[in-house]
Amino acid sequence: MTPMIPGFDKIVEARIKGAQRRGDFDNLPGVGQPLVFDDDRHVPEDLRMAYKVLKNADFVPPEIEVRKEIRRTQDLLDGEKDIADKYNALKKLNFMIMKVNTMRSGRIAFEVPQQYASLVVDKIETPSKDNGPD
Question: Of the residues 48, 93, 101, 109, which has the maximum number of CB atoms within 10 A of its CB?
Fold first, then answer.
């Protein structure tokens, strides 16, 4: 940690104590609760501040947005009964998976596997045990 300007820590401490006396900290959200720290061990140290600023601005990288849409489409696919709608949802899902895989510049091992029509056909032809017969 870099040393502060001489005397600056005393100014900061005085302002904090003044705010405490005025009660500025009394009704803050989460008062009395343990602090929850973000787990940013996977983020390089030199990028942590930039990531925090983007997160506080509610910025979500495009790849994450596509991954969220993939999850929503998978949920839609799981709940869909009509075969034509399932097929259309599957096409959309595969397109989004292809899109997210082209966005990343990494090893192929980290790519999202596409969903195949045979899996859908198997699921349609074999009702799941928890859903019972249609």
Answer: 93
Decide if pLDDT at 111 tops 80: no
Which residue ranges make up each domain of the chain? 62-125
Amino acid at 49: M
Q: CA 132 → CA 74, 116, 126, distances in Å?
A: 20, 23, 10
Out of 11-15, 40-44, 122-126, give the one with best mean pLDDT.
11-15
Give the phi and the psi of residue 102 in degrees, each rounded to 5: -80, -20
Sequence-separated (6 or more) residues with CB below 8 Å from residue 111: 101, 104
**Rounded percentage of the chain residues whose pLDDT exceeds 70:** 74
